Amino acid sequence: MSTTKIEWVRNPDGTPGVTWNPVTGCTKASAGCANCFAERMAKRLAGRFGYPKKPNSFQLTLHPDRLEQPLHWRKPRMIFVNSMSDLFHPGVPFEFIDKVFAVTRLAGQHTYQILTKRPENTAKYYRTPPHAYFAADDPNESRIPGILNACRDIVIDRRSGDAPSFDAVENAEQDWNHDLFGRRCADPDEDARASWPPSNVWLGTSIERQGLMWRAAELCKCPAVVRFLSLEPLLGEIKLPVVQRDESWPDDPSAEPLAYSENHPQRFCSSVMMANVMTTDHRHFRGRLSGVGIIHWVIVGGESGPGARPMHPDWVRSIRDQCKAARVPFFFKGWGAYKPFWPNEEKPRGVKAHEWNGGLTSYRIGTKLAGRLLDGVTHNQMPVVEATP
Predict the structure, then answer these.
(1) What does the pLDDT read at residue 255?
(2) Closest CA relative to residue 163, chosen from 83, 102, 81, 111
(3) CB atoms within 10 A of CB 181
(4) Is residue 366 classed exposed, middle or buried when 0-12, 13-18 and 19+ CB atoms within 10 A define those classes?
C-alpha cells in the first residue's frame, strides 16, 4: 500500500487515496501503453518488494500476500486497485480475481477503483450478457459463490488480530439476498445474482483514441455502481455517443436515485450516458445510439514521463463540452508533460516544442508547471455516491 499522487484517487475527506497492488506486471495492449509508468517503476524496484529481477521486473506476478492489506485499514479510503498492473489481464486467474472481490466485500468501508485496458475480459469474468445486465441467465455462471468461498477462506486464514469475522461473510450473504432496491426476492439464487455487483466497486477502462471506443461498450456489459472512462493519455480527438432521453419511457420516481441493500444504503446521484440496450439500472432511461452505455464519469489527461506525447487543447475541450451536455462528471487530470501556448503568450525557452496547425505550440515544461487548468478552470468533478437518509 502506498499513498498516491493520482489526482482522481481521493479519500472521502479529500486527502490522497492509496494504491493496492495484489497483481504487478503487465503486457502492452495498445498505443497508450508505449510509455508505461508502471513498467518504468517496476524496473526501479526490480528484485525488491516482490518484483522479479531484471530483465523480468514487469512480468505478470500475483501477490497473494498483499490480498489482505485493505482489511487492516479501518478508516474509509479510496483505493486504486492495481496501479502497477491490470486486474483483468488474461494471465490473472478468475479465482484470484474472486479473492480480490472478496476483500472488497470484507473491507466494505472502502471504495475500490478498478481500471483496465481489457474490459472484454472483465465482461467475461462477470458472465453477464448485455440483455441481462445484473444477472447471468444461468445461476451456475454467477461469480458470487466463488467470491463467498474466498471470503470464508480469508476469514479462516485470519482468526486473530484485526481479521474480519464470520459475521462479515454472513453479512455478505445477507446483502446478496436483497435486490438493488432493497427488496428481498423470493428466489435466493435469483436475488443474489440480481444484487451483484458490490456497491463499493467502481469499474473503468482506458481509451486513448477513437478506435478503442469498443472498450466502453465492453465495460457497459459489466454491472457496477460507477463505470468510468479514463481518456489518458489522450492521443487524439474522441467523440462520445449522443445522449437522449426517451420520453416514451414512463417516469418511475422510485427508480431514481438507486437504493442499494439495507447493509449498504447508498444511492447513485449522477446522470448517465446510455447505450442502445434496455437495462435494469435506470429504468426510466433508454439509449438510442450505440457505443457507451451508462458511463458515470469521464477522466481526461495528457502523458508525462520519457517519450511523452502532446495533447491538443481542442481534444480536451470537446470532451468537456460533451460531458457537460450529457450531465456526466468531467475530471481533467492535467496536461501532462506538454502545455499548449498560443502566439500571444510568453513562450518558455530551451525546451522541446510541438507545433500544431493554427499557430498553437505545445512546450515540454513538465507536469507540475503544465498544471491542470483548462481555459482557466480546474475540473474536479466526480460521481457522487452518498448515503440515503
Answers:
(1) 29
(2) 102
(3) 14
(4) middle
Contacts of 122 (CB under 8 A, 6+ apart): 88, 116, 203, 205, 218, 219, 222
Q: Could you say which DSSP state residue 200 is in? A: T
Nine cell digits for residue 6: 493520482
What is residue 385's three-state secondary structure?
A: strand
**What end-to-end distance do the CA atoms of the chain give, in Å?**
33
If DSSP codes are grouped into helix, strand and coil, which group holds residue 281?
A: coil
CB of 109 closer than 8 Å to CB of 74: yes
Question: By C-alpha distance, which of 299, 302, 379, 381 is closest to 340?
Answer: 302
Contacts of 24 (CB under 8 A, 6+ apart): 38, 42, 50, 51, 58, 60, 61, 63, 82, 84, 85
Which range among 226-230, 329-333, 373-377, 384-388 shows the weakest confidence by mean pLDDT? Answer: 384-388
How many whole angstroms separate alpha carbon 195 and alpha carbon 260? 8
Query: Cα-Cα-Cα-Cα dihedral of 58, 59, 60, 62, to 10°?
Result: -90
What confidence tens digit (pLDDT) does each residue in 274-312 have? 332 222 232 222 222 222 347 889 999 999 999 999 999
- Please check whether residue 298 is in contact with residue 221, taking contact to mean a CB–CB distance below 8 angstroms: no
Helix (H) or strand (E) holding 300: strand 297-301
297 near 230, Cβ under 8 Å?
Answer: no
Q: Compute the average pLDDT of residues 27-50.
A: 85
* Distance, CA of 47 to CA of 201 (rounded, Å): 32
CA neighbours within 13 Å on the CB side: how many for 29? 20
What pTM value is reported for the model?
Answer: 0.77
CA dist., res. 153 & res. 37, Å (int): 34
Amino acid at 109: Q
Whether the CB-CB separation of 281 and 259 falls below 8 Å is answered with no
d(CA 286, CA 54): 51
Give start and end residues of each alpha helix (H) in the chain.
37-44, 94-106, 119-126, 144-157, 166-175, 188-194, 214-219, 313-326, 367-370
